Amino acid sequence: MAAVLPALFLPLAIAYFGVLDEWRVAFVKGAIAWGVAVALNTEVLSVFRGLRPVPLAVVWTLEGVLVLVLVWRRRNTLSARLTGAAGWPVVAAASPLIVIAAATAVIAIAAPPNTFDAMTYHMARVAHWAADGTVAFYPTATLRQLYLNPWSEYAVLQFQVLSGGDRLANLVQWFCMTGSVVFASLIAKQLHAPLRGQLLAAFTVGTLPMGILQASSTQNDYSAAFWLLCAIAAALAYVASPSLGGAFWIGASIGLAMLTKGSSYIFAAPLALLLAGWMVVRLRTRLLAPAALMVAVPLVLNFGMYIRNEVQFQSPLGPSEETATLANATLEPAAIASNLLRDSVLQVGTPFANVNYKLERAVLAVHTRVLHIDVSDPRTTFGTEPFAVNASSLDEDYAGDPLQAILAVVSIVVALILWRRAPLLALYAGALVVTFILFAAYLRWQPWLSRLELPMLVAAGPLIGTVLARWLEGLGVGVVAALLLVVAVPFVIDNQSRPMVGFSFPLNPRLLPEGTTIFNTPREQLYFVKDPSFEVPVRRVAADAQSSGCGEVGMWLRGNDWEYPLWALTGGRSRFDQAIVANASATATHFGSRPCLLVTTIDAPTPTIELDGALFIETWAENRVALYAPLP
Fold it and tell me: Of 123, 199, 439, 592, which has the highest C-beta tally within 10 A?
């Protein structure tokens, strides 16, 4: 299967770098090389509308052969130079994490993408790119399909095009989770943690409830965390031994983080400032070349995204009217303090309504008596969402990570107090604090903000492992790891959208009927887990398109309507393009042909619609969806 080609590039790249580096360092470099290849292959082939099976297969084959030749030339020294590889005792100790990785991989393959964001833009944009052969902008009612950072979807696109379906789509996030577990242990080592601290860092990251839930989805928060950890590991290695090559790895990992998610700018800022300060003090006159490389590489990787956004929306980051809805409208100290408190509480919701109510009342009291600001201040709150403490959840949009959050706070406090003994740990802890402050100062509070905080908690894992390993002996570290594992179990087997078991833990209501799982539910039905009412009309649209032989279905949708199931249920035999658009993307290139059907979700549409000089008449309407066919 051609989809194996991009997957083979990674182990070959790791083997190449493993000739000189410890295996985890080789993993970092191999992953960055693979991430850069995904980005550049996509951008370059896109220019020629070459995002098709044959061009992609040829490019990945050529790149794979090139790396294979490089590895073969070093074959005599490869096995001897793979130093620091994990032995059987370490593998045995990490076996629970291997089980979690295996379980989430099964879920990722067995279940289709089915999060709200996947249906509206993650997978919808991939479907458009695959149909168009290019990542060029197109008319759409959901502008997020165009301007948001695309690396995760670029990676999904490789497998989507080469395999002809979405069976492998969720594995991108899964790979980022498993890689982050490994990288957390590496960073703990760089922070001078003993082996038990490195293992605890891996356990802390590998058992994050939000991370486990996201690992079998096409969300991109774990992808952002993955590149953030690559940047941290590369920066720590560079400080230990500066080189132009080290500067490249830092620039590439930061550039990939920026290409993956907008919040990465916030997460990378403290790291960049610390690194810049160190370079000024230590390198002095020798900093120009590495600094230029660290700036140039991210700009090159993000150039295509910046240019497309600038041309279409007159801003490299996208339409200002949309990005403004995410940013706070004030930087008053009270407003920042409000977000710091509200953002923190999202991580510690409990299964008990009375406890959550008391938490809400406490937060309200602080706002009323101390901050003198509305707890749902519209200047710092997304949309009209009222503040509330989310209950413990098995949903990848709302789950918190209470144990890891508490451990992170404790570790940060200890590291800052004992800064004289371990200044590197104190700097790491301080960077996490600054990151959280920047996060709260920039982003409005949202009920699903715990999802966006995932990269910070992943980055806190190495600090937790290092600090606790200094405090606790092996038994204490084992107890903490065991507690993290026990808490993680429900999130592994009872993901609300993709459950492996037929019974539900008392954390939130089941979305599937009792007794049903991803293994005994049709894959097509799982697309609609979060909105079952949409299933019947979408199936009907797909069936009508297939029975009529219609290869081009026009759409008249609202922003954030579910688009991807239309593509998925027709298996690529029909394409779906927005036919009526009234936003800034209306002038983008339309790659489709003249539609022979029109599907709409617009409330109370007219009985007839004129489109491209033809008159379409309503044939049926059901559950917010209506289908129109041209008059004979």
Answer: 123
